[in-house]
Amino acid sequence: MKALMFGWEFPPHILGGLGTASYGLTKGMSMQPDMDITFVIPKPHGDEDQSFLKIIGASYVPVVWKENNWDYVNQRIGHIMNPDEYFWLRNGIKYDFRRIYTNDLGCINFSGRYPDNLIEEISNYEAVASVLAHQLDFDVIHSHDWLTYPAGAFAKQISGKPLVVHVHATDFDRSRGQVNPVVYDIEKRGLDAADHIITVSNLTRRIVIEKYHQHPDKVTTVHNAVEPLEDADSYTKTPRKDKVVTFLGRITMQKGPEYFVEAAHRVLQKTKNVRFVMAGSGDMMNAMIDLAAKRNIADRFHFTGFLKGRQVYEMLAESDVYIMPSVSEPFGISPLEAMQVGTPTIISKQSGCAEILTHAIKTDYWDIDAMADAIYAIVENPAMHKSLRELGCEEVHNIKWYDAGLKVRKIYDTVTGNG
Amino acid sequence: MKNICIYFQIHQPYDLKRYRFFEIGQDHYYYDDYRIEDKIRALSEKSYLPSNATIAEIIRNSNGKFRCAFSISGTALEQLEQYAPEVIDSFKELAKTGAVEFLAEPYAHSLASVYSADEFERQVKMHAEKIELLFGKKPTALRNSELIYSDEIGERVAKMGYKTMLIDEARQVLGWKSPNFVYTHSYIPKLKLLVRNLKFSDDISFRFSNTSWSEFPLTADKYVDWLAGLPENEKIINIWMGYEAFGIFQQQETGIFNFMKAFPYHAMERQMNFILPSEAGKKLEDAGPLSITDPISWSGHEKDLSPWTGNDLQQEALNKLYAVTERVNMAKDKVLLHDWLLLQSTDHFRYMSHKDQFGTHYESPYDAFINYMNVLADFLERVDAQYPTTIENEELNELLTTINNQDKEIIKLQKDVKKLKANAKKKKAAEK
């Protein structure tokens, strides 16, 4: 089974959960003996792990025919891609894309991030997809998240191969219901074009069915998993007088930071030996600093700014409680990461991961009382902490990408007629 | 001749209301009255009242040959008294027939038998008194909460004067032995043990209306055939279940009440006898002792204590609760003593189980634990306010003894004073 996947991020250079999920899923699927994955991303850095799949950088795929000799190409992009491959892909140019700005190699310069001209990048990605669809050999197309839906749909149109669309989030999650019509349009077209849709939770599945009017039979939930943390033991918890309760993530409307501040306020009315940490950055950060001051808890409420890599796990491991009060979270991988380092978690019921976690406390995102009660119980009650810590760690250990990969494979088999 | 021994159990806990941590120290009322009333009313109307009426009818029609026992926890009795007194009345009517026996059990349907022997005795005594008060007869057979039993518990029960105890068919202790005999305590032969027949009990209470069961539909005729087909020497069949089997687990529409009416008729036709637990212990010959070192119960496959004490949360809650046993029982505060009982019901701990939260109204075991511990924190503060934890139990005991003795001393002295005064008067009178 050969899969052509379109993604937007791939570790180690990632901006959100999409990259982590793409990596985990492909790695899990690569354990199936006959699985062959080609993963396209806009702009690889050359240090991606390619031991289990092949990565193609869209920035290095020619979409406009330019005459170049082998040595020149080698000198320009040899560190990322074999020049032979460049020339071979060049044969896949069947359409005239000269309207798009390209460089001396006939390639498009993607940012690979989320720039202001994102819509333009998305449509340029289609051009790359057309070249690949003509030239590569594959059985199924798999598009990760809305940025890559147009590319996947175009590849399907050209190759006639089935398209599987993977919904990691929808604009309804990001905007608390105030969707951007342009984004919605792209999402809707992609979902309509798909032969099958994978959602990361039943929560997202419902949105896809209800808000994007997809037939329920066409939509299957495959919950995300988490990569085993090899050095889990290297993260330790420093004994300290005060308990630490942590919020970690983008400080945006979607993540419900204000509910965390309000819950902190409740807890601090009853006990003083707790500190609250808001780690991350985002457009609501200043508002949260204001709110903490207004509630008179600024002396117990701390902001760390953006954390990355090892810092994330260090922060999680140092915490007594991790809390994710997201208003709408398609899946939410970070509670699983917290559980990996043995930190008890509180998550909102509006998070996809709540569907598969037993040993985490679940509350409604707006239920500040319940949230405060849970925080209080964990910091005051060693048995509660111990139980969540031990059973949570064990639970998350058994949520494997390999199993998720098998479910995706079953969908491949169905859409390709092998099932 | 076969003997059928039936007992029905009724227990309802006092469900806790949602109690947040910021209410600790502020609000001392813990119960969800609305839910409790609602539940008791529904149970009474759908199950207890129609079942009692049916049983009264069977007893009447059989001239008292049909006999059965009830075990009703103290908390359930209180709830019935408050919200469905007509159920209590109908039980009193049944008691008058003489064909019905009421068993003793720990008042709060608690785990006291495992955590505090003294508390267990206190609760059994309390329950027996309540039963005698309501139904006019002192129980001689005892059924522990969740049929929890071990040699140690049996010994204590025997010492309290009980003659018969009820236990469950637990494979780890019975092995190849049949439940259809009367057994005795491991080393106290005068305490008889009756063993529930798991299959025949669950056939009615859980499988009766299950259409995918190979024996569906279950008729009274067929059921009695099975009983009659048991080996000749197996004299007693103990069919025990929650009373909710009638009208709740098995809804009225399934025909359960008709089954209930037809069953004794068919049994008597086949010369089978109905017997009460206390009679079984006296009338039937026993088949020797059963040795049970680790406590057994009637729950799950394991038939052990794990549904209530199996995880860290449950142990934490139970340890915190029973740590104040002595102090609470020194108290005179009636409300505090009442709360103490209600917080002990096994249900609160069952809801915290990770494997089986039978009957829970909480979203998760953690949710149940959080709520219970908040309530318990408030309760412990109240206990502490009466008897500060800074004083050791022994010291406290001494102080209380002194205080109690002081009372006696004063009374004695007052008497002396009276006597002396009287003497003095007499003397004066004599002098005059």
Descriptive account of the structure:
The complex is a heterodimer of chains A (419) and B (432). Chain A is of the alpha/beta class and 419 residues long. Chain A has two domains: 2-225 and 401-416, Rossmann fold, CATH 3.40.50.2000; 232-397, Glycogen Phosphorylase B (Rossmann fold, 3-Layer(aba) Sandwich), CATH 3.40.50. Chain A contains 15 helices and 13 strands. Chain A has helices spanning 17-29, 70-77, 83-90, 118-135, 149-159, 171-175, 181-193, 202-211, 257-270, 285-294, 310-318, 334-340, 368-380, 382-397, 401-416, and strands at residues 2-6, 36-41, 54-57, 140-144, 163-167, 196-199, 219-221, 243-248, 274-279, 301-305, 321-324, 345-348, 361-363. In chain A, the strands form two sheets. Chain A has a seven-stranded parallel β-sheet with strand order 3-2-1-4-5-6-7, with helices on both faces. A six-stranded parallel β-sheet of chain A has the order 10-9-8-11-12-13, with helices on both faces. In chain A, helix 5 (149-159) links the parallel strand 4 and strand 5. In chain A, helix 4 packs parallel to helix 5, helix 5 (149-159) packs parallel to helix 7 and helix 9 crosses helix 13 (368-380). Chain A is elongated, with a radius of gyration of 23 Å. Chain B is α/β, with parallel strands linked by helices and 432 residues long. Chain B folds into two domains: 3-290, 7-stranded beta/alpha barrel (Alpha-Beta Barrel), CATH 3.20.110.20; 306-386. In chain B, the strands form two sheets. In chain B, strands 1, 2, 3, 8 and 9 form a five-stranded parallel β-sheet that branches. The longest helix of chain B is centred in the C-terminal third of the chain and has 39 residues, at 393-431. Chain B is globular. In chain B, 44% of the residues are buried. The model of chain B has no long low-confidence stretch (mean pLDDT 94). Chain A binds chain B through residues 266, 269-270, 358-359, 361-362, 369-370, 372-374, 376-377, 380-384, 386-388, 391, and chain B through 20-22, 24, 311-313, 315-317, 354, 363-364, 366-367, 369-370, 373-374.
